Amino acid sequence: MEWLWEPLQFSFIVRALIAAVIVGIVCSVLGTFVVLRGMAFFGDALAHTILPGVVIAFLFGWPLALGALVFGILTALGIGVLTDRGDLKEDTAIGVVFAGLFALGVALLSASGNYTIDLAHFLFGNLLGVTRADLWVTAVLGTIVLLTVFLFYKEFLVISFDPVLAVTLRLPTIFLRYLLLVLIAVTIVVALQVVGIALMLAMFVTPAATASLLTRRLPSMMAIAAIIGAFSGVVGLYASFYLNVASGAAVVLVATIIFTFVFLFAPRRGVVWH
Questions:
Q1: Whole-structure pTM over 0.85, yes or no?
Q2: Which range of residues forms the domain containing residue 199?
Q3: Does 251 fall in a domain?
Q4: What is d(CA 218, CA 157) in angstroms, rounded to the nearest whole number?
Q5: H/E segment holding residue 184
Q6: Minimal CA–CA distance to 185: which of 270, 70, 86?
């Protein structure tokens, strides 16, 4: 059992473990709505559009989470406004904003000098570099997201499964849609340090998609996805420590391996059952 305890003698590993578990749970719980509502492309685009905010914060020495949060929320609301008008299809509006803001972030970063190293840091995360302050930000924002999901669980459930019923019940569908977009933006900020921009989508989609193959009930799906997300974070971090591979990539690979196993062998629904 020495292999289990050896990494824990380092404080940065302990912080990384806590951060990985928080991110795994928060991304997976919110990811169930992303999967159910077919918003994977939106989540991926939003993860990339926060790059200018992160770069600006980096250049001015501000907390990266602040720049990411501001740009994430503004982008989420902006895409919502563009698609609400009806002049553009949602995927078209997302594509335009995604490409433009990501290009702006790359341009700002290239103008700052240390382009290759900094871009790699932003794209792929730095789980082992999580500071105490980063951990507090992750914990606070993660708690806000989970509490909001708990408070609006029934409303999110209705608009995800039956939008017509939501209108019939006179639920504030526009407000709920914008709230969900903002929650995705906040969750992306939570996960930024752990998996980076490039791998963000996997933490939203993979655990939730895996859980959807095991159960049809949303509460069970959330619970299973959260367990898979947290487990992937812990195992991925240990793999990173012992195999000397990128921590964010290791976390995502563990989640992907679990998905593949479930896809093949899930009771009555796996490929081998057909």
A1: yes
A2: 2-267
A3: yes
A4: 8
A5: helix 173-195
A6: 70
